[in-house]
Amino acid sequence: MEEIKNLKKAAGRIQKAVKKKERIVLYGDADLDGTTSVIILEETIKNLGGTVSAFYFPDREKEGYGLTKKALGFLKNKAPALLIVLDCGIGNVKEVSLANKIGFKVIVVDHHEPLDKLPSAEIIVDPKQKGDNYPFKKLACVGVAFKLSEAVLGKKMTDSLRKNFLELTAIATIADMMPKESENKIFIEQGLSFLEDSWRPGIKAFLEEFKDCPDIYQKVSKVISILNIRDVENNLPASFRLMTCSSVQEAKEMIREFLEKTETRKNKLEEMMAEIEKRISSNEEPIIFEGNNDFELMLVSSAASILCRKYGKPVFLYKTMEKESQGTVRTPKEVNGVSLMKKCSDLLMTFGGHAQAAGFRVKNENLEKFKSCLIKNL
Fold first, then answer.
1. 299 is in which domain, residue-wise?
2. Which of 135, 157, 179 is the last residue of a domain?
């Protein structure tokens, strides 16, 4: 069977970095897929005898999605180092060039659709890149990270380590709404079967908190909904902090705090949905294209998904900032959101993602032109 392109090359490069005691920096998207990918790789490097010098998760509200200029400014004192970018990076052509200039050697591990040009990273691992003959293209990034971990550790991948990583792989594959087929189905079934005996304090605490839920799928759904909150401390998202905490008691305290924030989030989402539905009540356009300066980016994704299901139209929701706007895209199965945005790429600062779930960043002066371009090319 074909391997994912460059998977073994990336594994060899990580082994070399550990052996030569190079600095290693892990950079991940702040959602559950990104944070679990970072955790798996960090624990893989640790089991190989290496250490990670720094972690970074971009704050979408303040700096946008993917590898960002702000992040590279923050991390530049770590260079020279091996910078491994997980669950983002495939669309960051300018930013990877900047990282190279700063002195980083970059590995991109992603699962999003590549744009017309690939970044100039030392190694790119993405099943969707050109020339990749791996038959299954619908892995979450955590699935790619798990396979990379297997390649890095080889015979050092113990049964307990494999089970531990599969638990995270299952949760994040479900959270990222990847289709439950082929390898994803195996990851989910195996990972969920190990959850009840997990050693990880964060998972143990969750299972105790939701012991009244009738089955493991419902428990995991609760876990995902709670870990979707935007709660960052010391640049570390809630899901990363919870899944790496060292005691069940500490994890339980965090969960109670997150549950309160989830309730607040639910109320804010309802308010946002009411406002958007009021705006589009007489809208007969083929897309929903709405934004506001008080929209929260972490809620925009949920709202876009609900609206796309309800109205069967492509949905573009965005938060307006001083000079630019950042948004989320959700499209019905027959519309590829990334391909559609490619036709309007001259109006965009950045964009990318999956066919049905993507994002963009655009200057405010180009918002209306972008909307017109989308409608024209639909």
1. 282-377
2. 157
pTM for the model: 0.92
Q: What is the pLDDT of residue 1?
A: 66
Residue 140 lies in a domain: yes
Q: Can you give the CATH number for the domain in which 114 is found?
A: 3.90.1640.30
- Give per-residue burial for 275-309: e unless 16+ CB within 10 Å, then b: ebbeebeeeeeebbbbbbeebbbbbbbbbbbbbbe
- 45 lies in a domain? yes
Question: What is the tens place of the pLDDT at every residue in 308-343?
Answer: 999 999 999 999 999 999 999 999 999 999 999 999
Q: How far apart are CA 248 and CA 260, in angstroms?
A: 19
Task: Point out the domain boundary residue: 157, 180, 204.
Answer: 157
**Amino acid, res. 91:** G
Adjacent-strand bridge partners of 348: 362
